[in-house]
MOSC domain-containing protein
Amino acid sequence: MVSTDDSPSPTASDSTATVVAVASDDVHRFSKPLQEEITLIAGHGVAGDAHAGPTMIRRVRYRPTETLPNLRQVHLVHHELFDEVAVDGFTVAPGQLGENVTTRGVDLLSLPRGTRIRLGTDAEVEITGLRNPCKQINGFQSGLMKRLVSRGADGQVTRLAGVMAIVLSDGVVRAGDPLSITLPEGEHEALQPV
């Protein structure tokens, strides 16, 4: 289900938008193990996940004096990406790109900043921006970074490694849960890396 201002949206393929898998890890690793369910906590992220918290906790950019808001509490990736990279010989499964939620039926990358996604019955997240993947992706599968981040002839960078979000409402999320999209009111802002 897509809620818009009276105009149809190409961001969800009717009511088939679903959660394919959920993952979390209490240790900073590239891939996250799949779970039967994850619990989202408002203003915090995924309960027990190494990336959760109200302030930024990233090994690459974290400095002990930084107290920047954590705009990367939840990482979402569309399952369709795995089919796209398979054409180039890469084998990727849910959780392996470090995402907490793998979706199907929604073009996550085309959603504007501030889009709200309800996952299951109660949990709700707000998209803050694009995942800016690091070179650890090549450690996972050589050459995958170039496939997920590319520069066009016009110099514009395309990032395909999913979106980041903050948690607005608590809730449990499981594979098979439906998801629904609510676009922000007013002029839409394209996603930028966070």
Remarks:
- Residues 14-182 form a domain with the M1 Pyruvate Kinase; Domain 3 fold (CATH 2.40.33.20).
- The chain has three helices and 14 strands.
